Amino acid sequence: MPAPPPPSPTAQPREFLRHLLDAAIARAQPARTLAGFLPAPPRGRTLVLGAGKAAGAMAQALEAAWPADAPLSGLVVTRYGHTPPRPAGLAQRIEVAEAAHPVPDEAGQRAAGRLLALAHGVDADDLVLCLISGGGSALLTLPAEGLALADKQRIHRALLASGAGIHEMNALRKHLSRIKGGRLAAACGPAPVVTLAISDVPGDDLSVIASGPTVADDTRCADALAIARRHGIALPPGVVAGLESGRLETPKPGDALFARHRAHLIATPGQSLAAAADAARAAGLAAHVLSDQIEGESREIGRMHAALARAAAAGTGAFARPCVILSGGETTVTLGPAAHGARPGRGGRAGEFCLGLARALRGHPAVWGLAADTDGIDGVEDNAGALVAPDTLARAAALGLDLPDHLARHDAHGFFEGLGDLVVTGPTHTNVNDFRALLVL
User: Fold this and answer.
1) Beta-bridge partners for 438
2) CA–CA separation, 49 and 399 (whole Å)
3) Is 364 helix (H, G, I), strand (E, B) or coil?
4) What is the reported pLDDT for 338?
5) Distance between CA atoms of 152 and 141, rounded to whole angstroms?
6) Using CB atoms within 10 A of its CB, is residue 115 exposed (0-12), middle (13-18) or buried (19+)?
7) Threshold 0.90, pTM exceeds
8) What would the DSSP string read from start to end of 335-353?
9) Which residues does 152 contact at the CB level (< 8 Å), separation at least 6?
10) Residues whose CB falls within 8 Å of the CB of residue 313, separated by 6 or more in sequence, listed in order
11) Which of 69, 93, 390, 418 has its CA 20 to 30 A from that of 410?
């Protein structure tokens, strides 16, 4: 039976934007990409270790592609509720554990300890396949000496509220861990390690994805300490001393332990944005990918995108209507002190982008927008993101929803839920970070 035609961008703009998001997510599915990067089975056994929001789907893709008569076992850890349904007839050879994200919990700590113990049991004839995706920084929680789990939880919460970029956050996380920053690879000793990674970071830096548990780290203890001080992240005195002395240093590029290690990116944000652009062009629209590396405060990035869309609609910008403008990366939301008596807000960076976009568009009649996190979870909420339409502000006013108030409280979820404009995908079993699409007609 032939596939149904895609939604019309002019008659069904909301559905069309969701179609572009779906195309981006489909491009990053491990079942589509992983098999082409697999090495040959070794003389010994193959041990699978991994962590991230896509780890369950990556494990299943590996089980489907690995020869049935070749030994395969191991453990990966993913976020609660992010293990995909098992395809009929696919035998399970890799254990999947679940733990908390974005703030780590005891389940993640136990799983990380088990992964490290498994790594210590391999030899030179074995192969270690590491399946790494975004989210692994919280899911692989094994605090450094002098840190308790409660300390790590507090530090994670503080980092998430600080406005620090992902490179900064993960530089600190690597130095506060016994498994991240190349330490998992170091535990594998003489065995070759092949890392298969799905990128969720601007620039696709393997040492930043999930805090780089299997690759060399070029940041230093001094960098980690400076980041903590710059963002007001309190550290226990023993950890400060460990950073100052270099005792908590990570394995560095050029270390002989990485000589037999290889790493491959099996899905990236740029590839997913290209897939969405192809889908737009197939519908007869010009498509422009701004960048897959956009960082900054979410609401301000929303305002910048609104300026580009308004210029395109007016015929005065770099892009001509009708068109689609796409971007990715990882924006941030800085949580300042809450106003006295203010109701707490809910939401993530995609929703906050949409609040900034809607405010700056001011109800422009020719522009629609969608922003979502490609893992299906915007922050810690049940939605992936939100939609903005020409009538967003008018409908909000009719319902008594005050956009400046919601923006001040970082309450994108409450605003767009009231409008019925949350984008809900459920867990997508992949993660290539922010996806943003503007439709200018």
Assistant:
1) 325, 369
2) 50
3) coil
4) 66
5) 8
6) buried
7) yes
8) --PPPTTPPPP---HHHHH
9) 104, 141, 143, 176
10) 321, 364, 366, 367, 440
11) 390
DSSP class of residue 258 equals G
Residues of the chain with pLDDT under 70: 1-2, 338-341
Token readout for 417 is 């839920």
Query: What does the block give as tokens for 138?
Result: 């919280």
CA trace torsion 428, 431, 432, 436 (10° rounding)? 50
* CA 104/CA 149 separation, integer angstroms: 8
Residues with Cβ < 8 Å from 259, sequence gap 6 or more? none
Let me know: does 199 contact 268? Beta carbons within 8 Å.
Answer: yes
Give the model's pLDDT for residue 344: 77
- Give me the torsion for CA of 26, 27, 30, 31, rounded to 10°: 70
- At 384 the pLDDT is 97
In angstroms, the CA 263 to CA 197 distance is: 8
Q: Which pLDDT value is given to residue 131?
A: 98
DSSP string spanning 72-111?
-EEEEEEETT-PPPPPTT----SEEEEE-SSS--HHHHHH
Strand, helix or coil for residue 254: coil
Q: How far apart are CA 160 and CA 227, in angstroms?
A: 13
Calpha distance 89→252 (Å, rounded): 43
Query: What is the pairing mode between strands 323-332 and 294-297?
Result: parallel
Tens-place pLDDT, residues 164-191: 889 999 999 999 999 999 999 999 999 9
Distance CA(94)–CA(75), nearest Å, equals: 6
419 and 401 Cβ atoms separated by less than 8 Å: yes
373 three-state secondary structure: strand
* Reduced DSSP (H G I as helix, E B as strand, rest coil) percent helix, strand, coil of the chain, to 5: 40, 15, 45
Tokens 């590839």, residue?
271
What is residue 405's predicted lDDT score, i.e. its pLDDT? Answer: 95
Residue 319 C-alpha from the chain's centroid: 29
Give the largest Cα separation in the chain, rounded.
69
Structure tokens that stand for 247 in this block: 């005792």
Going by C-beta distance under 8 Å and a sequence separation of 6 or more, which residues neighbour residue 83?
56, 96, 98
